[in-house]
Amino acid sequence: MQYCTRCLYPENHPYGLIFDEDGVCSGCRVHEEKDILNWSERLNLLKNIVAENKKYVSGNNFDCIVPVYGGGDSYFTVHVVKNILKMNPLLVHYNSEFNTKMGIRNLANLATVFDCDMVTSTLAPSLLKRITRATMKKYGNMYWQVLAGRYTFPVQVAVKYRIPLIFWGVHPWSDQTGMFQHINEVEMTERCRKEHGLFGVSAEDIVGLEGLTRSEMQNFIYPYDNEIEAIGVRGIYLSNYIRWDSKKQHEQMIGLYGYETNLQQRTFNTYEDIHCFHSAGIHDYLKYIKLGYGKITDHATREIRLKRMTRAEGINLVKNLKQQEPKDLEIFLNWVEFTREEFKNLYWNRRDTNIWKKNKNEEWALRDSIENYKTGDLIEKVKLEKIEDCKFILTEKAEPDDIENKYLLMGRNYINKDNYGAIKNTVKGGGMTKRKWKESSL
Structural domain of residue 146, as residue ranges? Predict the structure, then answer.
């Protein structure tokens, strides 16, 4: 297995990597642009796109759409769109059902503090269960409906309400593996969604599995090209125009708007994935089984590139990631109605034996771990010097007595001082005062 000499990514990254003569991956090389590009000029390019868009939204109450959920980069994206670009967004949320209580609170707080309209798609739980069973059996993917809904519903809303501009946050394929340069200004397309976001599996491919009909899968079918062209729908990634630093951006949002954070099972990152029961749990565990690396590698790689962590520190974090059973497995199995044996048969057979082997104790072990590539001349040549510490904030919980032990399909869609668990003097909605922000902090 070839590993990047600067970060921790292996050559089998599903988005695809290219290594140069120094063994540095394409993701690291494209990341270097963040310290070279003139981001003030790029922000002006974004403002020009916004100005052009205003010609086509005359008479429409909303001039753009922002896909949101109770974690990730939703807060920062809405902050930029509403406060920097001075737009009136319609927030669009796909409800995956795997919601944590904290994720529901963060989503409600988002709509409240930014004072935005929000449209949510909540499908029948039985339908999502059948889809998940189908994609697990056929493709070994428990998360397809989550990603398909998240990437499809906002575009459907854009067509229905004739809103031509959609703002996404980070372009994950460029940020991780350097699939495109920032100056390419790549936009969201149906091809991008299917090939990269959904790993080549469309809603049409699932029709017939578990008795699923086309009408039942309609919520996951992308609008036709002629519908998109008639409205002129574009999906813009802010990370092509703003220097993307997820950690610093989350910390801005914690300070400005009271974004809640939480400890995660399989990563040191307390900011992302907190909205979902399984993203940093069983979903990541299955990724580890398939590919030999998990979310902690993604997060450590990002911090190495941003010079907050050394490569050696990242390897030490990764090596402590064991194959122990995630705490959320039982919750998921009860919901999807699989036995442990059925679950094991589905996934253990998908373990890539080019990556894994049985050791002398008949336990699975990586054939060629990142731990075998701690030092070397090229590693020393291309290493980045650490310039700051990597410390993540753990906020107090707004409802500290709550126990996260089951999915929450939906909860309060607003936050104010009278809500159960809302804390005085924290940045919540209602009559509470927002903290000030400075555009220069971008």
Answer: 26-368+378-428
